[in-house]
């Protein structure tokens, strides 16, 4: 009868941890960066909506652009960096607002620029008397 020696399993968990931990950290890193880009896109959308609202109500595109840039600055550092607000008149009675910028980055590689565009008609008030 042949006797088999039982193998010792000590140290296997350490080896598995060394092999899987970099992959787990990379997945967490990607998830956090994706969340930051999504958050930056939401911030750009908010700035575009508020700027379009201002432009539609006041009709003053330069004032709306300044208000949009001020709103982007008030969002706080890191949410939407280098925000560029563009307000243009389209078809004579519509306004289009485009906000572009950079979301917070934890990696300088592969982080897209966030951009949002909002378009709507200018408000026209009529005197019914």
Automatic annotation (TrEMBL):
It comes from the Bacteria. Residues 11-53 form the TadE-like domain. Keywords: Membrane, Transmembrane, Transmembrane helix. InterPro entries: TadE-like_dom. It holds the Pfam family TadE. The chain crosses the membrane at residues 20-39. This is Pilus assembly protein. It comes from Nocardioides antri. The lineage of its organism: Bacteria, Bacillati, Actinomycetota, Actinomycetes, Propionibacteriales.
